[in-house]
């Protein structure tokens, strides 16, 4: 089932997410719904806060980037209770966007290498190191479970220049091809 994606301005996007256990209600269905939602919106990753849940869960399918980076050919993963243990390498800029912040793309600087510990959908523990685009997508989604957004990495001047567009998103004054929930809609209930 496709879930509404939470728009910029909703407080859930700013909460540091909580760890979950294997007994989390409906977890496997939630994971499936998150993949379906992400695909419908043409994303390569989505985090639980983006569907309204402040839990430490995100999913990635970066295979659309396989032409640019061969390691992403079958890069489809579930990350539960993830902790980045190291970010290293050179800083490099790449143009990022976010399903919760549609129609805004900006060059964001991130480290080129990341080591992350996480549980997969079967609650098996993994500690892995990624580089390049895989590292970038992981860092972007990890930021969501830490209550951070890619626009937080912009200069104050750039943020000021984007303020009216960000305000329009939070008010629902945008058109998107996927289902979204805007902060203003939430208050009407």
Structural features, described:
InterPro entries: Peptide_deformylase, Peptide_deformylase_sf. The active site is at residue 141. Its cofactor is Fe(2+). Fe cation binds at residues 98, 140, 144. Removes the formyl group from the N-terminal Met of newly synthesized proteins. Requires at least a dipeptide for an efficient rate of reaction. N-terminal L-methionine is a prerequisite for activity but the enzyme has broad specificity at other positions. The protein has helices at 27-40, 132-145, 156-170, 183-188, and strands at residues 5-6, 45-47, 57-61, 76-98, 101-119, 125-131, 180-181. Helices cover 26% and strands 32% of the residues. The chain is of the alpha+beta class. The protein is built from four helices and seven strands, in the order βαβββββααβα. β4 and β5 (101-119) form a beta hairpin. It has a single domain, classed as Alpha-Beta Complex (Peptide Deformylase), CATH 3.90.45. The chain has a five-stranded antiparallel sheet with strand order 2-3-4-5-6, sandwiched between helices. Strands 1-7 form a two-stranded parallel ribbon. The model has no long low-confidence stretch (mean pLDDT 95). It starts with a strand and ends with a helix.
């Amino acid at each position: 089932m496709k879930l509404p994606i939470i728009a910029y301005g909703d407080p859930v996007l700013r909460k540091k997410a909580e760890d979950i256990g294997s007994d989390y209600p409906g977890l496997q269905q939630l994971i499936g719904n998150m993949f379906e939602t992400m695909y419908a919106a043409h994303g390569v990753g989505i985090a639980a806060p983006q569907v309204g849940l402040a839990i430490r869960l995100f999913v990635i399918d970066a295979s659309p980037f396989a032409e640019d980076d061969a390691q992403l050919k079958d890069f489809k993963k579930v990350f539960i209770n993830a902790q980045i243990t190291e970010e290293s390498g050179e800083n490099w800029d790449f143009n990022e966007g976010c399903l919760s912040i549609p129609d805004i793309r900006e060059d964001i600087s991130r480290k080129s290498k990341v080591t992350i510990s996480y549980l997969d959908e079967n609650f098996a523990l993994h500690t892995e190191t990624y580089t390049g685009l895989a590292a970038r997508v992981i860092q972007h989604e990890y930021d969501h479970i830490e209550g951070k957004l890619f626009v937080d990495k912009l200069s104050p001047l750039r943020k000021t220049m984007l303020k009216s567009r960000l305000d329009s998103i939070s008010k629902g004054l945008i058109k998107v091809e996927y289902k979204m929930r805007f902060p203003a809609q939430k208050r009407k209930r």
